[in-house]
Every structure is written in C-alpha cells, then in structure tokens.
C-alpha cells in the first residue's frame, strides 16, 4: 500500500524546491507582472491561511470569476491544498445560469476580477447568492459597482504569513468543480477529486499526451474557467515549466507578442483563437520560432490550421475532452509509423480527435449496445472511463441516469474509429451549438423566441462557420398577421433581455412550419438538410456532416 495519497501538494512542493526562480508571467492592463515559483509558493500559503481564517472548511466551495492570470493561478493550489474545492465559474454564461451555478455549488467565497465585477453584479441575486459570505475583488481597488461584502485581494491576504502548514488530505478529497451546459435544463456540476487532478496531470506530462517538460514555457489561452484551463496550470507546475498568462481579453497581437517576448513553447486554446492568430500573422512579421506545439481542442480543428502551423514548423496537437474527463481524453499525435505516410494522410489523421491517452478506456456503441467496427466508417456513441473521468453529476440524479452506464460516461459524441485507433467525431447526439468553444443551448433559445407573441413556432440550429465553428440561426414560423418586417428586431430585443450578445442568432429565417418527426418532435436534422445548400449567414462554410 502506498504510504501517501495522490494529491496536488507534491507538485507545488517540487516546483518551489527545484525551480524557485522559474517565472510566472501575466499580461495585465498595466504591463507584465512577473514572479517566481518561490514567490508563488509564499503567496499561495498566505492565501490558504486567509481562507482558513475566513472560516473556509474542508469541502467548502470557493468560486472564481476570473480570466487567466497569476492571482487566479494562486487559487488553483491554495484552495484545493487547503482542503476546499475550487469552483471556476464561466462569466460568459447568461445571468440565470450563473445564479443557478453559484446557488447549486453553495459557494462561500467568490474571487472576482474587476473587469468581471459588472457581470457578477448583473447576475447578483440575494437568494441565489445566499451562500456567498464575501466577494474578493482580484485587483488593487474595489470597482465602482454594487457588490455586497467586497474586499480587495491584497487586503484579504494582508497580515497572513507564508508559514501556513498544508493539511494532509486523502486522494478522494474534492478539489475542484466545473459546470458544463447541456441541451436542456440547468448546467451540470462535475467535481474533481485530488486524485483525479493528480492522474490527469501525470497523463498530460507523458509524451503520449502532451509531453510537458521543465524547459517548456506554457501559455494557456483556454480560459481558466474551462476545466482548469484544460489542466495546463497544474501540469506546468508539476513539470517546473514557466507559466505565461494572457490576462483579460487578449487579442491576436497580444498573443503574438507574448509568444515572441516570453519564448512560449506550448500554448492551448479553441480553434477560433488560432484562426484569429493566423489571420493576424498574414501581413505582419512575428518571430514565433520558440513555439513548438499548439494544442487545439474544445471544437474540431480545421485542417488549414494544421497546415498553416506546419508551414511555420509548429506542431498542432488536436485534442478532445470534456468537463467530465478533466478534460484531456484523446490527442491526435502522430502515431509511431505515421511519419512514413504521405503528408496529406498525416494531416487527415491529425485533424481527427485522436488517440486515447494512456490510463483511459473507451468503447463506441451503436443501436444501444453493439460495438462498432474500427474501420473508420462505422459509427456510434463514444463511452469513456478512467481515473479522471467522473461517474456522476453533482446532485443531478436525472442526468446521472441518462449520461452514465456504470463507470462509463456517455459522451454524446458520435464517432468513428479507424484501424489505427484514431477517434473522429462525426456528430453530436444532442442538440447544442458550440460557438468559439462555448456552448449555446438551441432549445433554450428557441423557447425564448417562441415566447414572442408574434411567433408560432421556432427552431434554432447551428450553422457551420469559418471563424466560430458554429453560429445559431433561428427558423421562425410567424403568427398569423405578424409584421414580418419588424419581427427579427423584435426577437432580437427579446433575447437581449436574458442572453449575452454572442448567444443571439446571426439570422432569423421565416418558414411555414418546423419539420417534425413521426412523434411530433421538432426535427432539426430535416431542417439542417433542407437548408444545407443555402447561404444563411456571412462566414458560413459547407456542413461537414452532410
Ligand atoms: P471543453 O471545455 O473541452 O469545451 P465541454 O465539456 O464544454 O468541454 O465540451 C465537451 C464537448 O466539446 C465534447 O463532448 C465535444 O462534443 C466537444 N469537443 C471537445 N473537443 C473537441 C474537439 N477537439 N473536436 C470536436 N469537438 C470537441
């Protein structure tokens, strides 16, 4: 029996002792802020002590509403190592979702960026936020918005020293939490134990996954509220690598400057980010020669991204994962032997979601329980299990029943597997839209559109888009006598009341009736097929699924 459990603590200890001078760099509105693992370790212990004194107990949840920066990273080790649970909240969600998430998680403290204070103030509701005792604003001054019981981060740390002693925690202690949005109903909470994060971190370090090393300079562009920035902050620390955090709303020029000036070797984000960077580089010179790997995930990578980065000598690693899988599940590495294949074949393989990482198992089932052939054609639903795959949602017996089969997670992704074992997503079992790596619930949107008095029926589908992956388009059956000219504006105004800009459909199309299935349900598939060849919105691309 091992004498000690698998927790995050040794990763921090090792980085502090072996790499005290290795840097942690953040882009802030005032310029770059630099510190080292030695300083980081001290600040993390001060924060843990402050949490202790604030009465945060074992298993309590501490929420963050923050971008990617060093202070957010401080909560990554302080909260779980102190025995509490780090709950990262996605600020891009509609207010109602944020209210549900904070209430469901029972967050006791919230760490909020000044630039997101308004988001939190807008979602703030005394009932939904009843568990929140204090809001810690991660800035030097309190913002000019109404946030009850707010205090600045530095004030919260004041008086606390670095001699805090970490508690000994069991591997099954809850360490993290992240909500994922689905087709219907409220977001579902996924909890990460110490052991899950430990296992995921170790897998990320292997060359079979991402192969992160102490010589790496790691820049997660994927938000830290998305499954712990896909685990990069933990893996970079475990390796003793340098961290680079791009701060709030980095644009392609900011990313190029950070890569160039900080010597970034590995970075990660959704396809939209890389399409933006590639476009930016078209007519500008930037020296990205340090960059070795770009991890692309959250949505399928377009082949052109792989080819363009290849031309610059930079390897795209396409990865697939879910909130439920901590998240990395597959990586489209070049499998041994593939170097000998011709370039186009290599690119085709690398554009698939990839090879299962060591430690996980998957199966693909069609018609309920029949395994598919690994021939690259036969398809079915992907099920996955392993030490960093959750086997339940927090407090959601309804979802647990439909989404799990024993230890297997039903991913909702419809995939093929080729004879080499490369998994490729060909469809989604449920009806959600992913725009720039973020979920939009088509059902929620159509219910909102149907609330308009001049609308009889509405269906919303995702239309493939060159920049965002998908964008929503609303198909609307106007009520008799409706003023068709003003209706799209009326619908937009209605949606704006409850949804962020990026949820709003790019177009409203009028139709006579929404196609239905034999049982009378909306058939989005028929709708998609009917309009497959029609240009509906700017930037639309052909539907790969047709
Ligand atoms: P993430 O933060 O990784 O986007 P989510 O839990 O929000 O995690 O979404 C997971 C889903 O996103 C997957 O089930 C899949 O449908 C989609 N997805 C993730 N990665 C990819 C990818 N590389 N290619 C296509 N779809 C992907």
Set out the fold topology.
Blueprint: H1 9-18, E1 23-28, E2 31-36, H2 37-53, E3 61-65, H3 70-81, E4 85-88, H4 95-105, E5 107-112, H5 117-123, E6 134-137, E7 150-152, H6 153-157, E8 174-180, E9 188-193, H7 194-205, E10 217-220, H8 227-230, H9 232-239, E11 242-245, H10 252-262, E12 266-269, H11 271-282, E13 293-296, H12 303-311, E14 315-321, E15 328-331, H13 343-350, E16 355-356, E17 361-366, E18 370-371, E19 380-385, H14 397-403, E20 404-405, E21 408-417, E22 423-428, E23 432-435, E24 438-441, H15 442-450, E25 455-465, E26 469-478, H16 487-498, E27 507-510, H17 524-530
Parallel strand pairs: 1-11, 3-4, 3-5, 4-8, 5-6, 6-7, 10-11, 10-12, 12-13, 13-14, 26-27
Antiparallel strand pairs: 1-2, 8-9, 14-15, 15-16, 17-18, 17-19, 19-21, 20-21, 21-22, 23-24, 25-26
This protein binds adenosine-5'-diphosphate.
Adenosine-5'-diphosphate binds at residues 180, 226-227, 297-300, 318-323, 327, 353, 411-413, 425, 428, 437, 439.
